[in-house]
Amino acid sequence: MANKRTKAVVKTNKDAQPLIQPRHLRGRRGSLRDMPAMPLDILFEVFVYLEPMDLLNLARTSKPFKQLLVDRTAARFWRAARENIKGLPDCPSFLSEPAYANLCFDAHCHNCLKPNIQTVHWEVKARYCQPCMNEVYYCFVSPESIDAYGDNPLPDPDNLLGWDVPYSIRRHKLSVKAIMEAWRQTPAENRAEFRIEYTARRKQLLAFASDYEKWFEMRKKARSKEIEETRQDRFNSVEQRLRDLGYGEDLDYACRLYRSGIHPLLKIPRVVQARPLTTRGWKNMEAEVLGVMDGIRATRLQKERLAAITRRIKKLGEALVPWRRTVGPITPYTQELLLMPEVSSLIDAPTTSEPTEEDFSTLEKGFYNFSSQWRNRGCSKLSQMVRSKIALPSDVDVFSLAVSQYFYCVRCAKVRYGYDSDAATYPNILVHRCLWESRSFPAPEDTYEGIIARLEGGVPRTLDTLQSLADKARPVIEACDQDPARVTVDEMDALDIRLRCTGSCQEDGVYTVYTWCAAIEHTICGYECGTGQPSWEKVPLEYLADVATLEEIARLNREARRMDFIEHWFCSHCPRTFNFKWYSYAKRTRSSLVEHLRKEHDIDNPTELDMYYDPRQYDRVKPVYFIRKGLDLNPHRFLRAQTASRMGEVKWVDASWFDSLQA
């Protein structure tokens, strides 16, 4: 019969017989072929040092050895072999020595010969795999289901012998048939004695099974411990070789990083083998192990680089505090400063050389120059936007004009509101939040730009998302009888002129008065006047006194709300950045900021240099409202119903006030 483990069959020609390639075996073939011819005294001396499984294998090699070792006179060899196994129970009286060795140490199914079957069924003195269990066992679900097995109904032998056993038990078919046959052949007067003998034999079997299971568990734990120690020694050997190759820091980092998880080296099958490490074994796994260690080294260096950059950014923020207090809140973001060549050379310096505070303080002059260049670039870009919307003389200062103060962010309108409502004024538009916030980071994570983007919450954007609103501001300025190409912000503020919209947004019984800034914002929010553009008329001079009084009340209310209810105040003495984490804990109300300055910086009487209002926060200029008394609409409901953004002060007036206005 051909060997089942043959790997390949080679044929020389069509009619030739297949040539079986021999298996590769370690050691020399036939080195033990002369063993049966050895003197018995030498064999007996060898047998003393063997284990039961060795004797069992030896008995299966040839007939002479089988006759020698299976004979009753060879029991002393089996006993000596059992003594070499620590803690193994003695051979029970109901088993021979070879049968006991076969049952204890040869882990195969006694029905189909499947290997590695660890469970011993002591009631039948055999090992069975799960498929054979279903074949050689009865399953008694209940006493009434006994008739379901075979043509000859076989009652449960335990119930037959008077035992009270639970349902859902298994009984070996051959054992049940044997005991039933013995029961039938036993005379009625001897059945009581038969029952006693059967019970005693079964108790003895179960007692021995308990002792064997305890020994087996002890042996299994000892074997597991031995295997684990062997694996640990192998891992330690691998670790020592890696330390000799210069991977000591990487191994220490991996131990800290994977303290609560699986070490990356333990995922390599060759590393966790339960055998001592040899030079040949190390060569087989060296390339794979070094590849894993190179990955760990790259991760360690990246983490160290990230920690160093984070630590240096904190130092830079502290060094920037005096400079920011001098130049004010309209300065480049920290992200932009970090990308300066002279700053990045310090922040991203090797971890072996740590920059000092003096190194950062020397950058102050460069910060002033960079801030000036940054502002000039932004103003130049914004100036081009304004001139693309309205014709202006070449000699005019664009940002002193009233027409060039308002800008619109395309990104805010599309992402947040869906209409042209989010406007901001110069110079605060230079630090608009959309110019640095970014949910997607284009730079790779392992680059300096990528690290800065993730630490600071975004990357600087260009001004391309902004648009000038000069074309929408021009009609308002012209309604005030001023030249949009010449009139400045201060001149518009000095005018004693208020406007009223005559578009479709107005309702009977409500008279809305706008300043020139509020009128521009109303024009920007074109949805309030439907699809058409607002048209404007001046408010009569005799009503300006009432308007001024109401505007002063509205200004005071807005100022009080801004001071004590809005958390958009920041400390000038604390390092600043505008990433999400910093913004969430650094913003305060003005009253809480005063308390912060007193406790943290020992400043009892803070000034404007000690605090600043968030330049990115845009507060719309509100109009004021005159509403006729008796109108079935309270002010709060009216304002919320018309638009959530109009929250101006309201004054109730008599109907005669409206009559005189119309006259």
Automatic annotation (TrEMBL):
Tell me which domain of life the UniProt entry assigns to the organism this sequence originates from. Answer: Eukaryota
- Source organism (scientific name): Somion occarium
Can you say what this protein is called?
F-box domain-containing protein
Output the SUPFAM superfamilies linked to this UniProt entry.
F-box domain
CDD domains in alphabetical order = F-box_SF
- Residues forming the F-box domain are 32-81
Task: Spell out the InterPro entries in the cross-references.
Answer: F-box-like_dom_sf, F-box_dom
- PROSITE patterns per the UniProt record, alphabetical: FBOX (PS50181)
